[in-house]
What does this fold into?
Amino acid sequence: MRYFIEIVTENERLIDEIGGDFTGLKAAKAEAIKAAREMMSDRLKIGRAIGEGFVEILDENRHIVELIALDAIATGVSPRRRHSQLYNTVSHAYLLMTANFTILEANRAYLAATLTDLATISGRGMFDVFLDNPNHAAADGVRNLSASLETVLLHKRADIMARQRFDIRRRDGTWEERHWLPINYPVLDEAGEVEFIIHQVQDVTSA
It folds into this structure.
């Protein structure tokens, strides 16, 4: 089987445009760990910090099938849960949800960007937490995000959304105008079905 191995850090993504043929995911994972350790070793030799990041393994359709935190590779510590590696290590804004849009986890960057806390949103539906601003008559954030997530489920591929206004409710109940660049990624299980959806956002309100 053909897999692609990409390394993502705080500052860059090392894109694998060719991929490689492996006997299975286990072999691809072993090669990914080897490649990541070599990269980290090379950078440490020239005094470059690695920072936070992860290794992303994609199948031949470029679907994410495995995520491995760089710090877990560096220390040899086995992760507690595969899907939690990303959220506990990287500084970009990510949220993890199930295939029925129930929120499981979000990293610190996401929680800070959306003015939320994990204890309050975990276990709730995405659209129970994030609502359209009732004061904005043309609000279409829920509709557009819902359509993107449905596309991910249907086609089992990432969906890159156009710049989207989706206001955030402050803790005092007032609303703050926000604009985002969202990307939604499927994480497939061993049967090739969508197990989780990674929701990545970049706040471009001031851009």
